[in-house]
Specification:
By secondary structure, the chain is an alpha+beta fold. The protein contains 15 helices and 11 strands. The longest helix has 23 residues, at 249-271.
């Protein structure tokens, strides 16, 4: 990084910013230089097309950092969304020297400036980097924040290093999976007891209770998580730009811009062949849930409230509040099989009833946006 500072001054940095703002009106490029040396310090970049496009993506952002691979080193901080067809959608990048709290503060402040005009509550997903956590709590104190399940799983496995064999660790992780994925509190405490019996109460309690339950367990999360449990989208984006990470910083940013531009065009062309009301992946998901819903019997309780039954279980579905007693509708923000059974029982069209499809109406807007790009 020091080599870059001594080789490239503020001139090339400002030329990059001016070129982006001139050719991409509505973009955000925030450049900071060292006041004493007038050398490059860090830069935040979000292109106008990505900012506009995020309006039509799910209100979810995966935030993560990756190291640069060129001789200048440095780190790339990124915020990546997910579109209606379950593909990653790059929103913003920052190039800086390291993943410090100061750099994350710079990144989140500029990110917040992009998000506030959209007026949406954004759910964030991260790997719990220390600098990231402190900065996030300062800039986004009221936003839902999920911790990556795979990251937590890895941290838990390290608690048993040199303390047990592979079988013990595998059993502990299997039971931890059930704890994290529990949909209701009753299931959480049931699986937690099994986990404590398997992994030892002291070790498990020390690990579990140092992390707020609302950040990682489905049963306690406050907000809409869209079924997300891991930071995989961020990893996909980091792998997507792995070649660009070997370039000098501003070359990396420009090559990434061109790659994103190409991706947007390809998605626009692809969307013109879509014939479904939802995006293809979500249409497939809806069909699978509809097939599952056919085994249930539906009994009307009162307006918009239905009892949905099979031979073993009974569920309560309220179409007006978009809730089901299985809690899967609330967790995934997509109708569960019981909800779809109730919608069909009410003789409503599941493909046109926007309220019943809840936040997945973003799929329709996402498709429309892809088509407008061309």
């Amino acid at each position: 990084m020091s080599n870059f500072k001594s080789t490239y001054g503020y001139e090339i940095s400002y030329k990059f910013r001016e070129a982006v703002l001139e050719t991409n009106p509505g973009s955000s490029v925030v450049l900071e230089v060292d006041e004493s040396t007038e050398r490059f310090k860090r830069v935040f970049v979000a292109y106008a097309g990505q900012i506009q496009g995020f309006n039509f993506s799910l209100p979810v952002l995966y935030v993560d950092g990756a190291f640069g691979k060129s001789k200048y080193k440095g780190h790339i901080l990124a915020a990546t969304g997910r579109n209606g067809n379950k593909c990653f959608f790059p929103l913003a990048l920052c190039f800086c020297d390291s993943e410090t709290e100061e750099n994350w503060l710079f990144f989140f402040k500029n990110l917040k400036a992009l998000l506030e005009p959209q007026g949406r509550i954004i759910t964030f997903i991260s790997d719990r980097d220390v600098g990231l956590l402190k900065a996030f709590d300062l800039i986004f104190p009221g936003n839902p924040h999920l911790y990556c399940y795979h990251h937590l799983r890895y941290n838990l496995s390290r608690k048993y290093k040199n303390k047990g064999g592979e079988i013990v660790v595998a059993n502990v992780l299997q039971k931890f999976f059930k704890v994290a994925y529990a949909s209701i509190e009753k299931s959480f405490y049931f699986h937690l007891k099994n986990l404590r019996d398997e992994g030892g109460a002291t070790t498990i309690d020390e690990f579990i209770w140092e992390i707020s339950l609302e950040h990682w367990c489905r049963a306690f999360f406050k907000g809409c998580r869209y079924g997300i449990m891991a930071n995989g989208i961020a990893e996909s984006f980091n792998n997507w730009i792995v070649a660009e990470r070997s370039l000098p910083p501003f070359a990396m940013l420009d090559q990434t811009r061109m790659k994103e531009m190409k991706m947007m065009l390809e998605r626009s062309v692809e969307s013109k062949s879509w014939t479904t009301k939802l995006t293809p992946k979500m249409e497939k998901r809806l069909k699978e849930q509809l097939d599952r819903s056919r085994v249930f019997r539906v009994i009307a309780s009162h307006e918009n409230v239905y009892e949905v039954r099979n031979d073993k279980y009974s569920y309560s579905v309220d179409l007006s509040t978009r809730t089901c007693s299985c809690v899967k509708w609330q967790i995934n923000c997509f109708p569960c099989a019981h909800a779809l059974a109730a919608i069909r029982g009410a003789k409503l069209d599941v493909t046109t009833r926007r309220k019943a499809l809840a936040d997945e109406k973003k799929n329709q807007a996402d498709k429309a946006f892809f088509r407008r790009l061309s």
